[in-house]
Amino acid sequence: MASSKLLLLCAILAIFSASASAGLVDFVFATIMQEGYNFAPIKEGYRFNLDGPDGSKREEVGMIINPGTPEEELVVMGTYSVYDENTDTDTITMYTSDKDGYKARYMLKNRKLSISTLKSGAGG
Q: CA-CA distance, 25 to 42, in Å (whole number)?
């Protein structure tokens, strides 16, 4: 009985997705937002930028090094940053991926200003 209900539900969703307007399909199935997204092919690779709705950012460059030779390889370099409201901290991750594997480094950056910075900014 439960399998027939599941089959009926799948059939109804298939019918809606095949014949429904884009508005209903977008409501039922998640879509990828294109705002803040940029992908640009370049001569030997690509450039990619993404600004997330939560303030996160990602920038990446992928290039084919030594194309058409036995030493040909894909090298990807980029950064990813995300902000944590609870700690008022940005986490910035820098990464590289090449024939030697994936390597990542990160840096924490607190957005709060120190007392000495505030004093110097106020002329004190």
A: 34
